[in-house]
Amino acid sequence: MSKTIQQLHIGLLGGGQLGRMLIQQAVNLNLNISVLDPDKNAPCRHLVKKFTQGSLTDYDTVYDFGKDKDLITIEIENVNIEALKALEKEGKQVFPQPHIIELIQDKGSQKMFYQRNGIPSSDFFLIEKKSQIAKYAGFFPFFQKLRKGGYDGRGVSKLVNPHQLDKAFDAPSVLERLVDFDKELSVVVARNQSGEVKCFPVVECEFNPQANLVEYLFSPASIKKSVEKEAIQIASTVAEKLGIVGLLAVELFLTKDGKILVNEIAPRPHNSGHQSIEGNATSQFEQHLRAILNLPLGDTAILKPSVMVNLLGEFGHEGTAVYEGLEDVLKFKGVYVHLYGKALTKAFRKMGHVTIVDEDLMKAKQKARMVKNTLKVVA
Questions:
Q1: Would the pTM count as exceeding 0.85?
Q2: Which spans in the chain are helix H?
Q3: CATH 3.90.980.10 at 123-177, yes or no
């Protein structure tokens, strides 16, 4: 007889804030989750019965962690693929599938995947070393993205002209033509083992220019219905062409001439879906669990317009985290604070987020600006 979902032993690679929120949802379904993370003080540490400290990129560590699990999932892409492939061959369920994580780990492979499958994306060139950039002098400006290892704005450099390459990486990279965009959008899409696909409504992202991280998220996005329909269609196509089981965040550009281009994808819960905890009928974390457990996917409808504010460590502060203004923002109606349990702060480190829900999106945006100016993470 097959096991019930409560009898499954689920292994989670990564114990950061995404894992923390995933486990908070897993508690509601009485799921048995164990965590592997290199940080002995990871945010997930005290939320599970079994926490293992160890490298996510070491073959033996990942394999040994997974060999007594029924199902393995991730909250970060930087994991040992060969160990996951070995576990999959031995009959373990691994979602998202190892070959998909492997493709997404490499930004060059991502771009070639879009090209092969007719998925709209910006023009690009692949290089192996810095000296090859000069070959493309006629195509500047570029964003240079390391093929592997980039995360949260790291591993990305803006190259304005071929004579100013002091910031260029001397490593295998993607040279991506600069996109003249009007908005940055995101669609979180889920697909379960039965092939059921559901998208969350399109959200709009506003970035912190210094840290290159999302600062605000607006749900729903202020876009035309035709744009929303096309964005959701593109996100669904990406998920179906990959054949992914789990959650996929599809980051998009809306260009000034009205085109939609895929920027990057992430095969896991994502910063651009955090507002769904309070703002949507089903959160992205519950949806990920439904997808990997082959349960019916949940309703993604917006309950109320919402704004998500990322809480980033203040510039110039490094040390034990102190949350200034917390009591003040908790006085606001419709404000939900999520702190990630990180003991130490530093400049631009993601320390938490706040979701503001309101019947009126403009009022939610105004309240979000007040929250941003009031709640500070300092040392």
A1: yes
A2: 17-28, 59-66, 81-89, 98-105, 107-116, 225-242, 276-279, 284-292, 326-329, 361-374
A3: no
